[in-house]
Amino acid sequence: MSLRINTNMSSLIALRNVQSASDGFSHSIERLASGLRVIRGSDDPAGLIRSENLRAQIAGLEQAIANSQDATNLVKTAEGALEEIHTLLRSMRQLAVHAGNTGTNDLTALQADQNQIRSALESINRIAMQTQFGTKKLLDGTAGVSTAVTNSNLVGGAFFTGVFNGVAVASGDVSIQQITSATRAVVAGSVSYGSLASTVSAGSIVINGQTFSTDGTETLESFLNKINAATSVTGVVAEASFANGSYVIRLRSSEYGANFRVNLDDSRGLVISGGGATSVVGRNAEYTVSINTAAGVTSVKFVGGRSAGESGLRLTDTYGNVILLTEAGNATTNLVQVARITAGQLQFQVGANAGQTVALSLNNMSITQLGTGVVAGKSLADIDVTKTGGADEALRIIDAAIAQVSKLRGDMGAFQRNILESNMRSLSVAKENLTATESSIRDVNFAEEITRFTKFQILQQAGMAVLGQANFAPQAVLQLIR
Fold first, then answer.
1. Domains of the chain: which residue ranges?
2. Is 36 helix (H, G, I), strand (E, B) or coil?
3. Mean pLDDT per 10-residue run, the chain (482 residues)?
4. What is the rounded CA–CA span in Å between residue 41 and residue 2?
5. Distance of CA 144 to the CA centre of its chain
């Protein structure tokens, strides 16, 4: 055995092990105090990288959930305003129905109805201009689509939602090109009359379920007037058509399209030579409509008269977009630009990563934009129940406005329920699972760490005792000196 005083190898070895146990004990204390397994990169370089990436995703998911909640609150704000617009429109419709009762109403009553309607219209405009979320206006057109007719000779009105052929609408021109023109149902009579003063033979005809009789002393003109007095019921207009030196009765539908027909039962031969029954149906217009979308210039076939009682000149698609042709527009076959769309939309970041956004378009709810597409050149702003036929026009315009507001509310409800709320639930589940994964990498397992802590604590205590013994060992040299 060799004994050395200057270099005590046993002490050095013991000291090294004590330092190692002390470092392990210190790190264990740090983990237990912080609750983290990975505190710095040296603890687990690969684990730190994965953990930080997961932490970034978790923070992004937390903000995306908050964004979705904010978007939900915005939609609720807009829908609350639209609900009030619906209430005003229902009130206006009730007033228009009252104004249509001209048998009992005088001009004073009609003017009172018009005054109330005008007040409601002002409220709708106020709601459209002032509804906002924070400082962002929602219903004034800046957050959605506005359509302006640029060729009123061919198009009497247009209304576009924020979706066209399943993609978002973009700003640009609206062009149309005819596929098939609309026609009215027409029955051309074959019984000749010398003049409008000619006497119509005694008998009767049935037009769309209504019977019109003559006693044999009635003139052609008065007979036509009798038929036309019931146009609001039958939907048929009677005309005297002059050809080859004589007049014949021509019956035509007052509206274009397949929803309107002329059913004639003429057993006495007042219209059709030899008598008989006939039924003729109109034809709906079909046009290709092209606009700018997020996918570029997109063309879709629009069809007239999709809904019952709807004119064949009122072209619509499956997304609620509308173009109302005039008779001149129905006659044109060229590709023509008829309107312009100004598109805006609200974009929401609903994911933790780039490109994970959704958009919502809120249409302009001002009175000049609502109720378009049913009466050529008119909207809610043009309602006047004091004029002849004004109540009937008002009902058609208000019904269109109600449908437009309902469509927007339905789209907003679907957006809130199927996108925002569904997204929040999905993101919450993703956040939980990512947090669990990040925790398994970063957080300390206390049971395991306590075991490690106890080991290092004992090793440190034992090492200190052994180090003391190792430091005492060189004193054995003194025995040799004695």
1. 36-144+344-443, 184-281
2. strand
3. 68 80 76 75 78 88 94 95 96 95 89 95 94 90 88 93 89 95 94 90 93 92 93 92 88 95 91 88 96 93 91 93 94 93 89 90 91 90 92 94 93 93 94 88 78 81 79 72 70
4. 45
5. 10
Burial of residue 314 (CB within 10 Å: 0-12, 13-18, 19+) is buried
CB 216 within 8 A of CB 235: no
pLDDT at residue 456 in the model: 75
User: Taking the CA of residue 377 as centre, how many other CA atoms within 13 Å lie in the half-sphere pointing to its CB?
Assistant: 6
pLDDT of residue 2: 57
Q: Where are the beta strands (DSSP E) in 52-162?
A: 132-133, 136-137, 145-149, 155-159
CATH number of 184-281: 3.30.70
Instruction: Enter the tokens of residue 276.
Output: 């008989």
Does domain 36-144+344-443 fall under CATH 1.20.1330.10? My reply is: yes
Per CATH, 36-144+344-443 and 184-281 having the same topology is answered no
Is-contact 476 3, C-beta < 8 A? yes
Going by C-alpha positions, the residue among 203, 191, 186, 205 that lies closest to residue 246 is 191
Count helices and strands in the chain by DSSP H and E runs:
10, 21
> Assign residue 236 a region: left if phi > 0, alpha if psi is -120 to 50, beta otherwise?
beta
The span from the CA of 394 to the CA of 375, in Å, is 9
- Rounded CA gap, 362 and 435, in Å? 36
User: Residue 305 in 3-state DSSP?
Assistant: coil
Instruction: Name the one residue in this structure whose structure tokens are 């019109």.
Output: 212
Among 350, 369, 352, smallest CA distance to 360 is for 350
d(CA 52, CA 399): 57
Whole-model pTM: value is 0.76
Cα Rg, the chain, nearest whole Å: 42
